Amino acid sequence: MDVVGFGALNYDRLYNVEKIAAPGEEVAVKEAWESPGGSAANTIFGLARLGFKTGFIGCVGDDNFGRVILDNFSGEGVDISSIKISGGKTGTAISLIDKSGERTLYVYSGANDELSAGDVSLDYVTDAKFLHLTSMVNEKQFELQKQLVEKIEGVKVSFAPGEFYAEKGLDNLKPIIERSYVMFLNRREIEMLTGRDYSEGSREFIDAGVEVVAVTLGKDGCFVSSEKDSYLVNAERRNVVDATGAGDAFACGFLSGLLTSKPLHECGKLGNAAAGGCIEKFGARAGLQDKLKG
């Protein structure tokens, strides 16, 4: 196994609107879209599309949304043997995307909250080269992730905290950060966690033991760094339709570079390429590609 993901499994409902409504205001929906989602899930789906062997740890409900999520994974070749099916409702996420491509997100965690330690096989994780972690709403699953990274030897941890985990603060995330090989953040998240800009903030994570830090900078590309090197990698201009899942796609492209032993700068280019394809389509997965050109 190349990469195992561990994060939320949600069914996404996306609504394209002229603008985000103010309190009491009524705004028409121009277009609606539904798709399986979840941050780590999107990254794992993208890696499978690129031909890597992937699996996932998570939980869905025994309902139509859960079945769609599982079928979507299976259709792309993702191993679903470690995904629990519970009696609860599958998690859902509602995204409102305005004409500039920016979004507002509402999340119902649902069955994601029912994942417990007994549902996670250490053998399944230790068979992988990377464990890719992203945020989950419930504190129990956050604690489970922290416990898991302490138990796995020889597996590189990839961590994309997102804004939800960034709000927990640096001290609460340290058990995962100190075990991480690579971290993925955007400009806002790294400033939230360190109080510094992306360059100085990246150095703080490197000093904490993280081998590689990749910070996405929107239209400006990304800043990638390690102990020895750092690069500002420019992105090609793209027609932004929807920014949903751009960071997840970036992580997919970047990890594909790490898995094939590409240089740091090339990993950044692959991340930019994957994110660029993503934002040109509506939804987090429609623009994911089966080949990337760095």
List the helices and strands and how they pair.
Blueprint (H helix, E strand, L loop, with lengths): L2 E4 L3 E8 L11 E9 L1 H11 L4 E8 L2 H13 L6 E4 L4 E7 L5 E6 L13 H5 L3 E5 L4 H13 L4 E5 L1 H5 L3 H8 L2 E7 H8 L3 H10 L4 E5 L5 E4 L4 E4 L12 H14 L4 H16 L15
Parallel strand pairs: 1-4, 1-8, 2-6, 4-5, 8-9, 9-10, 10-11
Antiparallel strand pairs: 2-3, 6-7, 11-12, 12-13
What does this protein structure show overall?
By secondary structure, this protein is an alpha/beta fold. It contains ten helices and 13 strands. It has helices at 39-49, 64-76, 122-126, 139-151, 162-166, 170-177, 187-194, 198-207, 246-259, 264-279; strands at residues 3-6, 10-17, 29-37, 54-61, 83-86, 91-97, 103-108, 130-134, 156-160, 180-186, 212-216, 222-225, 230-233. A nine-stranded mixed sheet has the order 5-4-1-8-9-10-11-12-13, with helices on both faces. α4 links the parallel β8 and β9 (156-160). The relative contact order is 0.15. The mean pLDDT is 94.
State the gist of this model.
The protein has one domain: UDP-N-acetylmuramoyl-L-alanine:D-glutamate ligase (3-Layer(aba) Sandwich). It has ten helices and 13 strands.
